[in-house]
Each structure stands twice: as C-alpha cells, then as structure tokens.
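Proteins fold reproducibly. Next comes a concrete instance:

***
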Amino acid sequence: MTSINCPNCKTLIHSEVSTCPECGHPQPGFLGYYNLVKSLDGYKFANWILYICGAIYLLSLIVDLKHVNFGLNFGFLGPSSKSLLLFGGGGSIPIFQFGNWWTIFTAPLLHASIFHIGFNCAWVSQLAPVAYKFYGFSKLVIIYILSGAFGAFLTAFAGVYFTGFLKGASFSIGASGCVFGLMGALISCGQQSGSNLLRNTIWQYAIIGFIFGLLMPNIDNWAHFGGFLGGYLLPKIKWLSYKCTETVNHYLLAIGLIIISFLSLLASIYSGLFIWKIFPDLLLN
C-alpha cells in the first residue's frame, strides 16, 4: 500500500485505511485513488471545461452546417438553434414545452458563437484555479455544475411565469451561469473567511458582468443571477463550506453530477432527434 499524508492532520498513513488512526478522518486515501485525486487542480478543471465545451461546440456546428452563422458579428460561427436543441439547449421551450428538464445540466455546455465560448472559457480559466485553492477539486465541480443548473432552471422558470423585461429566456445556452456561480462562491468564501480583498475584488467582477449583461442584447441575465445565487448559497451549507475538508463523499457527489451531465447529454440527443423528425424545419432563433 502507498503511504500518504492524511488530508486532515497530515499524519503519514497507508492510503487504503478506512479511517485515519490519528484523527479519525474517513477514507483519507479516497478509496485508494489518492494519487489521482491529488493530481487534480483548478487548471486541469478549466482545461476539461475547455475541451468538453469545445468538442460539443464543434459537433453543434458540424451537424447543421447549412445554418451556421457566418455573419461578421458577435454571433460569428454560431450553431443553429436546431443544432443546439439537439445537444441540450435549455430555456422555457425545451424544459416546459418539450419536457426536457435535464437540459439544466446540458445548457451550460453549449455556446452560441466562437466569441461566446472563448469569453466564458477565459473566465473559467481565471476563476477556477482561485476557487480550487479554497474549496478543492470536488467541491469546485459540485459548485460549478449545480450553480449552472440553477441558473438554467431559473431563466426557464422566468420565461414561463414572468413577463415584460423580467421575462426569462425561451431558449438558453452558455456557461456564464457557472462563471457567475464561481464568483458567488468566492464572494461567499471571502465573507466567511474575513478576506475583504477576495470579496471586494470578485464583487467588482460580478458587478461589471451584471452591468454588461444589462447593456448588451441577447444576454441571459436570469441565468447569470441564478448561477450567482447558487454559487453564493451552496457554500453556506456547512458540508460545502471552504472550511470543510474534502472527503470521499465530496468526490462521489462530484462524480455523480458528472455522470448525470453525461446522461443528460445523451437524453438530449435522443430527444432532439425525435423533435427533428417531427419538426424538420424547426428553428428557434
């Protein structure tokens, strides 16, 4: 067995013991996968987001090349809404009209243009390593996925039950809800730790982001707000606080959410092909 330092008390122990003999920390070796877990960090997380979103973005272009946006604007190299629906676009139409509730997990994986994906992935690459330092890898995954899902749900809900300028999106995509979720989590961490520098710096980023969303057209502000709210509130749960040491249960939940996201993508493709067959000329944009 490999010898490791307990992640809680730093005592040298075997990696496969069920509890640390010194402090009683459960599964200190993460079921024998300690070396793999130890190698994960915020930069690798950001790279994974780039690879996953990039691959889905390219596929969404390829499956409907005929309707790719080649206009010289913010929508340059944008997939068609028909293609984005296939891969799990969210909003009030897919969720409340088609019943594709799982798109709250897939919508944050999709992007509307080369600028859209570049902008969001750049923010993830900046914020994920900082969030990792406070929360660790598994809690970073949990906060990222759940805050994005909450933002996707909130905009769909607002798209059905609100009207006027408060109305949410009928069709919504993008990782910006997750980005705002990371901001909310870092602000929450700054408040709990007493770090005014962290809290005030991230607040500046968030305020600029919210103002930008209000001034620019076709920005899903409900997804931004929902993601921010989710990221801010999740660390208020003691188990997800930055003070809580990561355990095997955190990693199991993170893996479970990744599996749910993957299965949601498969469900979206299956449902999307069915919708394509019924509505061959469907375009939502």
The chain is about 60% helix and 0% strand. The two ends are 57 Å apart (CA to CA). The chain has a mean pLDDT of 91.
